[in-house]
């Protein structure tokens, strides 16, 4: 029996191996053809207080835009290869975790899939963790894929 209900899966993505492995794990273990996959990326601008010149700001923006295009190309190709119904969205926000949670609510996501670098408690406290933020603030279930538990020979 076919359902009219379409699950919307928000997948947080960047250029890391963790993100790619989380995508692959989702495809192999959870994906259903009727799901709509929304791959979300939040560009990161790496600038310190000493780098506030106009040229440094422009350079940082260009670098972030180039990385965003790389993420888009990578995941749009992966979705196409898998025959997925999906789209790519870039979100502008200084807090990626907050942006992802807010966007998940906006699109009525059924659940969120994210990778994690597996930071220790001290590093996570000092550096923050997008997956940790999502896990504690999302209003939908969150699937956090830790790299060390994922198969090395995934095929996607």
Automatic annotation (TrEMBL):
<feature type="domain" description="UspA">
    <location>
        <begin position="8"/>
        <end position="146"/>
    </location>
</feature>
<dbReference type="InterPro" id="IPR006015">
    <property type="entry name" value="Universal_stress_UspA"/>
</dbReference>
<dbReference type="Pfam" id="PF00582">
    <property type="entry name" value="Usp"/>
</dbReference>
<dbReference type="InterPro" id="IPR006016">
    <property type="entry name" value="UspA"/>
</dbReference>
<dbReference type="InterPro" id="IPR014729">
    <property type="entry name" value="Rossmann-like_a/b/a_fold"/>
</dbReference>
<protein>
    <recommendedName>
        <fullName>UspA domain-containing protein</fullName>
    </recommendedName>
</protein>
């Amino acid at each position: 029996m076919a359902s009219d209900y379409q699950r919307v899966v928000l997948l947080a993505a960047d250029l890391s191996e963790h993100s790619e492995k989380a995508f692959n794990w989702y495809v192999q273990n959870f994906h259903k053809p009727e799901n709509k996959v929304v791959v979300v990326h939040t560009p990161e601008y790496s600038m310190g207080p000493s780098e506030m010149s106009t040229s440094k700001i422009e350079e940082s923006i260009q670098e972030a835009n180039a990385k965003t295009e790389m993420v888009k190309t990578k995941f749009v190709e992966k979705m196409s290869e898998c025959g997925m119904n999906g789209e790519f969205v870039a979100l502008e926000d200084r807090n990626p975790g907050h942006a992802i949670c807010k966007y998940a609510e906006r699109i009525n996501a059924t659940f969120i899939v994210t990778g994690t670098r597996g930071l220790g408690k001290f590093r996570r406290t000092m550096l923050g963790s997008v997956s940790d933020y999502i896990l504690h603030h999302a209003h939908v279930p969150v699937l956090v894929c830790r790299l060390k538990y994922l198969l090395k020979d995934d095929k996607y």
